[in-house]
Design brief:
single chain, 148 residues, 77% helix, 4 helices, mainly alpha
Length: 148
């Protein structure tokens, strides 16, 4: 069985992005445009969630308090969210041959504000899921192979 605690970042990001993706499909003028946007959104958010877990596994020992964890999470999502949204837009524009939005300072600030909010909510979901998967993994019986 897979250790699900290795994918907590990806699962948390997908859970948190689902309401926005559902709204994107509902309020999209073009069904295929909305579907491609949602698929691109899920792929990029999952990739960022996996990147989050990889980086966190490297620096886990230096995070000694929940405040530092919040700061790391907020900083990570604040810095990646504008580029992630730009990547989604780039994919959609290339598939549907639409003009690309201008990538300026206002776009960056707007993305960073949303990234900070996303990161703070992400940290709450991440901690809860990580604790759940840790407890779930500890309850699973260990199978011992007997040697003859």
């Amino acid at each position: 069985m897979w250790k699900l605690r290795r994918f907590v970042g990806m699962i948390s990001a997908l859970i948190l992005s689902t309401p926005l993706n559902v709204a994107t499909v509902i309020f999209s003028e073009n069904v295929s445009l909305g579907t491609v946007t949602v698929i691109a959104g899920y792929v990029t958010i999952a990739a960022c969630g996996i990147l989050y877990d990889i980086i966190l596994s490297r620096i886990r020992n230096s995070i000694s308090s929940y405040g530092r964890f919040l700061a790391y999470t907020g900083l990570f999502w604040t810095s990646t969210f504008p580029f992630q949204q730009y990547l989604i837009e780039l994919i959609v524009c290339n598939i549907f041959e639409q003009p690309l939005t201008q990538f300026n300072l206002q776009y960056m600030v707007f993305g960073m504000v949303f990234g900070l909010g996303f990161g703070l909510l992400f940290s709450i979901i991440y901690v809860r899921l990580f604790a759940y998967f840790m407890l779930k993994d500890s309850r699973e019986p260990k199978t011992v192979k007997r040697s003859k």
